[in-house]
Write a structure and sequence with these properties.
Radius of gyration: 24 Å
Distance between the termini: 43 Å
Order of helices and strands: HHHHHEEEEEEEE
Number of domains: 2
Number of strands: 8
Shape: flat
Helix content: 25-40%
Largest sheet: 5 strands, antiparallel
Structural class: alpha+beta
Length: 227
């Protein structure tokens, strides 16, 4: 599992920038060619550019939404409402192909598998899991809530820095895997009890990072369902 990999766009861009600023020191020792160094540096620059400009566009969208809503409905004490100026994006660096993270982790895997690799080198390159990351992964625990919507059970949960959750369900015979969910919230499409019947369903979940389980199982939540 690539537990060292930062999970937010901003932190990932900084991680790659740090890595590419130091890789020249180690490329010969780890058999990384000059062309590969040039390629990973271009990846870092282009990713940082995309993240920075995304934040500008996101802010512009929020400002435009505010402008549009005030224009439609007005707002107390607001007598002037000017459309926000379009953002000025940074100059576009050389374009790279899709798959920056895949290329980065592939190179990191090569480095970590090399006989010359040490933890100290990994810490300098930013490819060792920090103590904070270890603690957070060990203690991470999703919180589930259940609500009935449209005659179906909805599981409410927060994603945070994780990739998703693995959900288990107990319909009366013990917990079994129900599904994975990567975008909150989750809708249980299981067949409801027969007309006039009821059942008690229990759920629990655990976080996924790079599609592997991390942390602790959530507390069990229970819901009664009827048709």
């Amino acid at each position: 599992m690539n537990s060292y990999l930062e999970q937010t766009d901003e932190k990932l861009a900084l991680q790659l920038t740090n890595f590419t600023s130091k890789i020249d020191t180690y490329n010969v020792a780890f058999g990384i060619t000059a062309a590969e160094v040039t390629s990973i540096k271009a990846d870092g620059v282009y990713l940082a550019w995309s993240v920075t400009n995304f934040k500008k566009i996101e802010t512009y969208k929020k400002n435009w939404t505010t402008f549009k809503n005030i224009l439609k409905k007005g707002e107390s004490n607001v007598t002037s409402n000017t459309a926000p100026p379009a953002p000025v994006l940074d100059a576009t660096p050389p374009v790279v192909p899709p798959g920056v993270v895949t290329r980065f982790t592939t190179m990191v895997n090569r480095i970590k598998a090399h006989q010359s690799y040490t933890t100290a080198i990994g810490q300098n390159l930013g490819i060792e899991m920090t103590n904070t990351q270890k603690v957070n992964l060990d203690s991470a625990q999703p919180t589930l809530k259940t609500v009935m919507r449209g005659g179906q059970v909805n599981l409410l949960w927060k994603k945070g820095k994780f990739g998703g959750i693995l959900i288990e369900k107990d319909s009366g015979a013990g917990f079994v895997t129900l599904d994975k969910d990567f975008h909150p919230d989750f809708i249980d499409n299981s067949t409801m009890p027969a007309q006039g019947q009821s059942a008690v369903w229990k759920y629990r979940a655990i976080y996924l990072l790079n599609d592997e389980k991390v942390g602790l199982w959530s507390d069990v939540v229970t819901v009664s369902v009827t048709s």
